[in-house]
Amino acid sequence: MGSRNVMSRLLVLSSVGFGGYLTGTYLERRKPIRTADYVNTGKVDELFCSKPGLPIFGTVSAATPIPAESKPSALVNVSRVGQIMKYGFPGLDNVRSFDDYVLSYDRRTRVAHWVFEHLTPETVKRNDGVDRAKSDFKADDSIHPFFRSLNTDYKGSGFDRGHLAAAGNHRMDQKHCDQTFYLTNMAPQVGVGFNRDKWNHLESYVRKLTKQYPSVYCCTGPLYLPRREDDGKLYVKYQVIGSNNVAVPTHFYKVIVMETADGRLEMESYVLPNQKIDDGTPLTMFQVPPETVERAAGLLFFDKIARNKLAKINGKKV
Q1: In the structure, what pLDDT confidence band is assigned to residue 163 with cuts at 50, 70 and 90?
Q2: pLDDT of residue 33
Q3: Rounded CA gap, 72 and 49, in Å?
Q4: Cβ(181)–Cβ(196) below 8 Å
Q5: Other C-beta atoms lying within 10 Å of the C-beta of residue 292
Q6: CA pair distance 121, 222, nearest whole angstrom
Q7: Percent of the chain with pLDDT over 90
Q8: Average pLDDT of the chain, as a whole number
Q9: Which of 66, 97, 186, 257 is spaced 20 to 30 A from 179 at the CA atom?
Q10: pLDDT at 78
Q11: Residue 247's closest CA among 153, 311, 181?
Q12: 95-112 burial, b if ≥16 CB within 10 A, otherwise e?
């Protein structure tokens, strides 16, 4: 009889404890958290709430809250994410989905690890109803204020706010274009000779691929590559800008997969230095084996595609 009483008490205590844990967890998730933007003001100045996540990955979240009454829109967003990420996620660190592109954010550097896009003839064709001049550069409020980049970080730095997902790739809707101006989609880029020139040429080239291929998948991101210095040793060094120490990448990459009308797949990969590049340098000079980018970035691109199933890599038959 005594042992039964002990067991009964233990069960009651366990139930109470577990119930309290669930209640506390629920309330904590519902409660807005007041945070201090110590980096910029040193004051407690805003409320920060965690954002909803996609159901499969704990680190994947929508960039803006999805209201409960907007289920059809949420389902469309998840479906679009599935289209964009058809051939796999390069990594799953702080992944955020927007209406027409997906990114993984590096809170340490304040620059994305990677940004993924799915381009079609419809998404890139001219649309008089979409005007990038109406879009404003803005901080991404889905990022904790400790880890955000701000417009003030770029002001006076000498660097452009360079798009990773190019605004010109998202012309189906003004909102799609607007969302490419979140600072989570930006990186400090040299202006003349790079962002406004050779990098822009590469972006235009990717868009033109949609004239030949019905679907083009493009992954873009930064690299921080080592350089050998006078002592003969290799060092990884990069500048940071602004009060939030936004990292200035040494290089940028694009890894692209093109689907042909008959289902064949081709891949191209590029690495460009973040510096002024002579306008006469052909883009093919910057083609590199995709595994070179993977090793440098610490990511696996299009890992659902076996490389021996590709028809071409950088224009050469596999």
Answers
A1: very high
A2: 46
A3: 23
A4: no
A5: 12
A6: 26
A7: 75
A8: 86
A9: 257
A10: 77
A11: 153
A12: bbbbbbbbbbbbeebbbb
CA dist 223 and 301 (Å) reads 14
Tell me the chain's radius of gyration from C-alpha atoms.
23
Q: With beta carbons less than 8 A apart as the criterion, state whether 96 and 62 touch.
A: yes
Instruction: Report, as residue numbers or ranges, the catalytic residues.
Output: 163
Find out whether 26 and 16 touch, Cβ atoms under 8 Å.
no
68 pLDDT above the threshold of 60: no
Beta bridge partners of 216: 119, 258
**Residue 13 pLDDT grade (very low, low, confident, very high; cuts 50, 70, 90):** low
Going 65 to 67 to 68 to 73, the CA torsion angle's sign is: negative
Which neighbouring-strand residues pair with 103? 96, 115
Residue 8 CB contacts under 8 Å (≥ 6 apart), including other chains: none
- What is the model's pTM? 0.79
Q: Kindly give the pairing relationship between strand 265-273 and strand 227-228.
A: unpaired
Amino acid, res. 274: N
Edge-to-edge strand list for the sheet holding 95-97: 60-62, 95-97, 101-106, 111-119, 215-223, 251-259, 265-273, 312-313, 316-317
Query: What digits encode the pLDDT tens for the residues 215-253?
Result: 999 999 999 999 999 999 999 999 999 999 999 999 999
Q: Identify the CA nearest to 141 among candidates 48, 257, 208.
A: 48
